[in-house]
Amino acid sequence: MMRSLYSGVAGLKTHQTKMDVIGNNIANVNTTAFKASTITFSELMSQTTQKASGPNSTTGTGGTNARQIGLGVKAGAINVNMTTQGASQSTGNPFDIMITGDAFFIVSNGSENFFTREGSFYVDGAGNLAMTSIGYNVMGWEVDFAQGLDSATIKQDTVKPLRIMSAANMTYPPEATTKGYVSGILDRNDSDVTGAHGKVINLNFFDNLGYSYTARFNIKQSADVNQYSLELAALLDSNGEKVDISEVAFGARNNTQERETKVGFQASGYTWDKTAKVLRSADGTEAYADVNALFEGGNLKALDEEITVDGNTMTVGEALDNIAKAYGYEGSTDEFLNLYVNTDGGPVSVEQMLGILAQGNADTDNAFPMFDNTDSQTTFTADGRFYDGSTIDFDPNTGKFAGIGGSPTTKTLTAYFAALGGNFSDIEIDFSECSMFDNKGTSTVAATSGDADGMGAGRRLGDMIGVSIQNNGMIYASYDNGMTKLLGQIATAEFANVSGLEKKGDNLYSATMNSGEFDGVGTDITANGGYMSTGQLEMSNVDLSAEFTEMITTQRGFQANSRIITVSDTLLEELTNLKR
User: Fold this and answer.
1) Which of 15-19, 27-31, 71-75 bottoms out in mean pLDDT, i.e. has the lowest?
2) Residue 1: pLDDT band by 50, 70, 90 thresholds?
3) HSE-CB for 362 with a 13 A CA cutoff
4) Average confidence (pLDDT) over 312-331
5) pLDDT tens digit string along 257-278?
6) H or E element: which one contains 138?
7) Residues 390-400: what's their mean pLDDT?
8) DSSP 3-state assignment of 394?
9) 233, containing H or E segment
10) Comparing C-alpha atoms, which of 155, 162, 157, 93 is closest to residue 126?
11) Lowest-confidence region among 155-159, 195-199, 243-247, 546-550
């Protein structure tokens, strides 16, 4: 039998194999992250009919080469083109990820790890990041929260499924505000600053449970225009209801501020019944407060205690509110009661004067000028006021902040809200960014939670509103309270010989002895210059022009080998015809 027949058959089979490889490449021209294969041929074997001989010095003849007849061709190797990057395809899906570089995603079916370049992922019903096609879990590294949420780090250990939508990750816990700062211009010509009620600034903050509150502070100009009183006026909850702050310390108690304030009835609708010590309407028909009924033994009764004023029942607090309203301090009763007049015995507050008057011991021309026997009974001048708080000082030459409470080194003042109990925390407030420049009578001073770097601002409970994946594979969740949280990191695997990986179908590969083993931990993709791109997928790296060219040469090779068989058959036919 002619050897050429078998060579032709071997050539046909080998070219069929090559066509199989080309066909598979073309079939997967649109398969995500598919890597094309190439085949190389090698000579099958050769039959030696004569060995090679060397030169003979005795006879003077030269050597001869071996006589060998080849017996065909075989597939030498089928290589996968793993190193050529496929083009990118934009999808807009944040869970579609393309790797640039030589790394592979690590996925698991629960018992075995596989490797893939296909980055089409989604979040399954259990909250795990998984392959869209077959549901295998994407593997990565968990987060180490030992130092707290704000200092979370990745723990590069044995890879595990990335459960990014767990119940714990769906919300971001609240945190109490611990710091604040006041900044801006405090213009000494601002009518609010010089007015009776002062400049009001609000600090919004949170308690440990994330409930919001508003601390209202007043800044008022003193007789010294370079010094201003600073006090906590009120604390309001999220519904606008006042919280009792009698136990809250903010600066010193019973500070005095020298500040002349003219006080008088806001309209002609009020008059004092000097004999009965009762505040009445101008026509005397309606009584608003009875000084005698407000005190007992010189001490003010409880604000919620009921008293009778001309047969009408009201509380002590309501009666005091009526007096304050008459003098233009509606809604600021405490401020009115803390106004004082300097006497021979020292400053006497309005509240103290009312108590003295109730006991019948007042020298009304001295101790209680608002209630005397002259025509000026409805007007008096307070020399100052008592308040709980401190002072904020400015340098008269530069207009810049110069300290708190007379101390140039003190920049902060603490509101001790923790005294309220429950979930409140103390808040340290920095005033060093305030200034006293001319701003055409307008003050811009305002309070902000947190320090100048945003630390200690506190927060409410946050709901997850989005997930993003960084180019290093780190996964972050964003929340509607402005916070972000590290959920994990997608790990990758790299191999010394990527072409040595074994295809497993479904765009998966497994490690082999020739690719190198996977150590179970993986690598950070950026360690060797690679990175991930979200919203994109890697396309197949099949080059159709090259494949069609190879198809032509394969077809011609197959055709030529078929001719070997037909010609050899013709020769054999001639041989058999000799017998005729």
Assistant:
1) 71-75
2) low
3) 28
4) 92
5) 888 888 888 777 888 887 788 8
6) strand 137-144
7) 94
8) strand
9) strand 227-237
10) 162
11) 195-199
Burial of 298 (0-12, 13-18, 19+ CB in 10 A): exposed
Rounded CA-CA distance 96/92 in Å is 8
Distance (Å, whole) CA 110 – CA 173? 32
The closest of 520, 559, 579 to 8, measured between CA atoms, is 559
Average confidence (pLDDT) over 245-255: 90
Cα–Cα distance between 97 and 117 in angstroms, integer? 9
Distances (CA, A) of 99 to 200, 310, 468, 486, 569: 56, 87, 16, 21, 55
User: Which residue, 164, 161, 27, is CA-closest to 105?
Assistant: 161
For the purposes of burial, counting CB atoms within 10 Å of the CB of 428, is it exposed (0-12), middle (13-18) or buried (19 or more)? middle
| Cβ atoms < 10 Å from Cβ of 184 | 17
Token pair 């096609």: residue: 133
CA atoms of 236 and 219, how far apart (whole Å) = 18
Class of domain 179-253+393-449: mainly beta
Please compute the mean of the pLDDT values over residues 176-195 and round it to a whole number.
93
Q: Domain segments of the chain: what residues?
A: 3-82+541-577, 88-173+467-538, 179-253+393-449, 266-377
pLDDT value of residue 377: 52
54 DSSP assignment: -
**pLDDT tens digits, 57-92:** 888 888 888 888 888 888 989 999 998 999 999 999
CA dist 399 and 189 (Å) reads 13
* pLDDT value at 149 more than 80: no
Size of the chain in residues: 580
Residue type, 69: I
Contacts of 246 (CB under 8 A, 6+ apart): none
Q: Are 104 and 493 in contact (CB under 8 A)?
A: yes
CA dihedral 91, 97, 100, 106 (to 10 degrees): -150
> What is the DSSP code (8-state) at residue 197?
S
Nearest CA-CA partner of 368 in 470, 261, 274: 274
What is the pLDDT, as a whole number, of residue 530?
A: 94
The residue written with tokens 């934009």 in the block is: 90
74, 68 contact by CB (below 8 A): no
DSSP-derived letter for residue 310 is T
Q: Is the dihedral of CA 313, 318, 320, 321 positive or negative?
A: negative
Under 8 Å CB-to-CB from 275, ≥6 apart: which residues? none
pLDDT > 70? residue 375: no
Q: Where are the alpha helices (DSSP H) in 327-414?
A: 333-337, 350-358
Output the six-digit token pair for 541: 């790296």
Sign of CA dihedral 190, 196, 202, 203: positive
Cβ atoms within 10 A of the Cβ of 310, count? 13
Determine the pLDDT at residue 24: 95
Global pTM?
0.73
Contact 543, 518 (CB under 8 A): no
Q: Which of 191-195, 220-224, 472-476 has the highest mean pLDDT?
A: 472-476
13 Cβ neighbours under 8 A, 6+ residues apart:
none
Percent of the chain clearing pLDDT 70 (strictly above):
97
